[in-house]
């Protein structure tokens, strides 16, 4: 991959379309079919150390933090280690308890974000083990961590992250699978996840083939005063990232909420000028999510659903191919990148360089 625009009008568009190859790259050479696991050469964490981990804490900023939310869910699901993510800046400002049995993971596209780097340095000073999930090889965070997983998304030029977001989520799936297979994940489940990972590039291509329709939907919703993004558990980090993406690139105000929190306040905002994007993976929470759609409809809210099948309660549905339930969130983010992109295009925004933002924030 190069800096050449290759016929695309913006880097954002180019990078969204590069995801098929990028995901292929993050998987390449890492899958070990014989043991239904993955090999992560730079991890620097042997089986005994991996088994001793009692908790995982993931730190990052912006989109990197959101991939951390996906990563924490994957690690809990596949490796059954309690895991959570926190913005790196909050973590370093609050004088956190640094626990020797916790594995800390810093996540960053550039590897240079000051808040994340400062969190790593503080952790190292206190004797913690810190891994990196980083895109830029040899960057400051890659150097200062004890080991990690490179994301191999290739250069990302557009300020808002797309392919790196997806690849980082896949890198977390690899790490979760690796930790899971050292702990309690069965061979059968390992094989199931590996097969799912291998299907991802083609399924991303399938989502991207739907671009014209997503463009029409973007035009339909571009007049929104504000947009709500909701999801439950697996859908929630996807909703958060999609909301951030829309804000950053189109300047349309957006909020993300766990679907079950809607009734505790934000439901008051719902009206036709405030549409909702609902992320509905086909998991054990689907029925609950459908009930949320009804609550929104009852307040005359418009709904755009992202789901694996048409949703009759929604005004529109973007249908995304089904993968394994743990990996579905990765796919569901992709059409929402296109939604943000085409909304920004319809509104005439400066897509690759949104106002007030920088690709990496290397100062405090
Ligand atoms: C900036 C960018 C975001 C990015 C964040 C973290 O705020 O505008 O798009 O997610 O930094 O960057 P990193 O390089 O650490 O992933």
UniProtKB/TrEMBL annotation:
Limits of the SIS domain: 45-185, 217-354
Task: Give GO terms for biological process.
Answer: carbohydrate metabolic process; fructose 6-phosphate metabolic process; protein N-linked glycosylation; UDP-N-acetylglucosamine metabolic process
Q: Name one GO molecular function term.
A: carbohydrate derivative binding
Superkingdom of the source? Bacteria
- The EC number(s) given in the record are 2.6.1.16
Q: Where in the cell is it found?
A: Cytoplasm
Which reaction(s) does the protein catalyse, per the Swiss-Prot or TrEMBL entry?
A: D-fructose 6-phosphate + L-glutamine = D-glucosamine 6-phosphate + L-glutamate
GO cellular component annotations of the record: cytosol
Query: In the UniProt entry, which residues are flagged as the active site?
Result: 359 (for fru-6p isomerization activity)
Enzyme class (EC, first level): transferase
Q: Does the keyword field hold Cytoplasm? A: yes
Listed A to Z, the keywords are:
Aminotransferase, Cytoplasm, Glutamine amidotransferase, Repeat, Transferase
Show the coiled coil region(s).
none
Assembly information from the UniProt record: Homodimer.
- Summarize the protein's role: Catalyzes the first step in hexosamine metabolism, converting fructose-6P into glucosamine-6P using glutamine as a nitrogen source.
* Designated name of the protein: Glutamine--fructose-6-phosphate aminotransferase [isomerizing]
Source species of the chain: Streptomyces palmae
- Gene giving rise to this polypeptide: glmS
